[in-house]
Amino acid sequence: MPNSQKSSTFVADFAKMCMDRANERYDKDDLQEALRVLRAGGIIVYPTDTVWGIGCDATNAEAVQRIYALKRRADSKSMLVLLDSSAKLDYYVDVPETAEMLLGAQDDETKPMTLIYPNARYLAPNLIAEDGSVGIRITNEPFSKALCAQLKHPLVSTSANISGEPAASCFVQIAQPILDGADYVCRFRRTDDTPCEPSSIIKVNTDGTFVIIRK
Question: How many CB atoms lie within 10 A of CB 20?
Answer without folding.
Answer: 11
